[in-house]
Amino acid sequence: MTRDEIRALMSALLDGEIDAGRAAELRRAIEADPELRREFEQLLALRGAARQALVPPPVDDADWEALALRVAAGTSAGVGWTLLAPGAAALVLGGLAGFLLSDEVPLWIRLACGATIAGLAFLLLSAIADRLRARRIERYDGVER
């Protein structure tokens, strides 16, 4: 085997992807050449460092409690917003409908208010649509600082 062939098979040897006979032959060739042995030892060290980097950090009870509190706070806030939003929308729409349909308010004021409300609704809906479009292509959505 040439040095280049041995170098190409070193990672496969470390990963256990080579049969026993070929592995023994490869180990003998590596041991016989000081440069290949040094490269193989560097690969071993790199593999060990990579495995250590993949070990998840320990999580203690305080972390779990903090997570539970965040989930509970988010859930209760979500329920609150779910109840508040339709109630507020019903009150606002009812008040606006009464105001805009009232014969006591001059027509030009009703039209101006109607145009303002329609413009605000359009802006709100376009902002929501833009946010939903951006959410589909957001590259850094799961990145935390």
Describe the structure.
With 145 residues, the chain is mainly α. Helix 1 (3-14) runs parallel beside helix 3 (34-53). It has two domains: 3-53, no CATH class; 61-137, no CATH class. Helices cover 80% and strands 0% of the residues. The mean pLDDT is 85.
Sheet with the most strands, sense and barrel status: none
What integer value in Å does the Rg equal?
A: 34 Å
Mean pLDDT: 85
Cα distance spanning the termini: 49 Å
Assembly category: single chain
- Strand percentage, roughly? under 5%
Number of strands: 0
Described by the principal axes of the CA atoms, the overall outline is elongated
What number of structural domains do the residues give?
2
Helix and strand run:
HHHHH
Q: Estimate percent helicity.
A: over 70%
Structural class: mainly alpha
Low-pLDDT segments: none
DSSP summary: helix tally: 5
